[in-house]
Amino acid sequence: MHRVMNPRLLVALLMLGLAVGTPQVSQGAVVFYTDIVSFDAASNTVVVEDFENVAPTPTDTAVPSFTNNGNTYTGISSAPFAANVWVATPPYNNFGVVPTTSAILTATGDEDFRVDFGTPSTAVGFDTYLNGLGPATVQVFGSGGLLGSFNPAHDPTIIGFLGITSSEAITAIRWTTTLGRTKNTGIDNIRQGTAVAEPSTLLLLGLGFAGLGIVRRRLH
User: Fold this and answer.
1) Which distant-in-sequence residues (6+ apart) come within 8 Å of 42 by Cβ?
2) Beta-sheet pairing, 104-106 with 86-88
3) DSSP type of residue 89
4) Where are the alpha helices (DSSP H) in the chain?
5) Are 174 and 218 within one domain?
6) Do 69 and 132 share a domain, yes or no?
7) Rounded alpha-carbon distances, angstroms, from residue 110 to 37, 55, 103, 174, 216
8) Confidence bin at 29 (pLDDT 50/70/90)
């Protein structure tokens, strides 16, 4: 005599497995990753901007905006200064990570800037620099407007990471923090590419559907 698993129990186990296998924070169309390993498992990306060569844009200088490697970087607000972006070259001693060892996109005043992607992508990632003096917010935009937002909160003395995958192409992000005029924040090493289904999620789905198929055959 065969013992038949309750279909409802099987579905519940499948959903639990999917919840465990889904990384980080999901907000509808977007999923946020705070470690590059999980992000790499869910995407195919390459570094498109490391800010090491943005000529003829001047480095260590406040500029309203600049375009490099197809992406446009625009200052929105840097109170009490005018809206600007600033590529800080190493070694720089006014970030939580001291001294810095690579060029970083930041601003004067309280950092608030936008990155518009020349090629919208379903996967975007970048290194994050925080100051620990106030909240940081990353807003993610698609062609129809805001897709979601996330608040990075890692140890400001280390370089963090934020990855984003989306079912809809990401056209822009906005980086906003507080008290940057006291200690800088910023981003570096922007990656772009495509989101892919995670192997663990595909495996769980496959096992779940296979299990449902077995139950249906036994019930019939």
Assistant:
1) 23, 31, 33, 123, 163, 165, 195, 196, 197, 198
2) antiparallel
3) P
4) 7-21, 36-41, 199-219
5) no
6) yes
7) 30, 25, 19, 13, 59
8) confident
Same domain flag for 169 and 215: no
Which residue, 181, 167, 174, is CA-closest to 149? 174
| CA 103 – CA 98 distance, rounded (Å) | 13
- Count of the separate structural domains present in the chain: 2
| Band (8; pLDDT cuts 50, 70, 90) | low
Map residue 111 onto helix, strand or coil: coil
How large is the average pLDDT for residues 26-50?
94
How confident is the model at residue 215, as a pLDDT?
42
Q: Beta strand 136-142 with 145-150: parallel, antiparallel or unpaired? A: antiparallel
Single-letter amino acid, residue 39 = F
Average pLDDT over residues 126-131: 98
Look up the domain containing 212 and give its range.
1-22+198-220
Each residue's pLDDT tens digit, 187-197: 999 999 999 96
In 3D space, the residue among 94, 92, 90, 84 whose CA is nearest the CA of residue 63 turns out to be: 84
Q: Could you tell me the pTM of the whole model? A: 0.80
Chain mean pLDDT for the chain: 86
Q: Which of 11, 203, 23, 184 is nearest to 105 (CA)?
A: 184
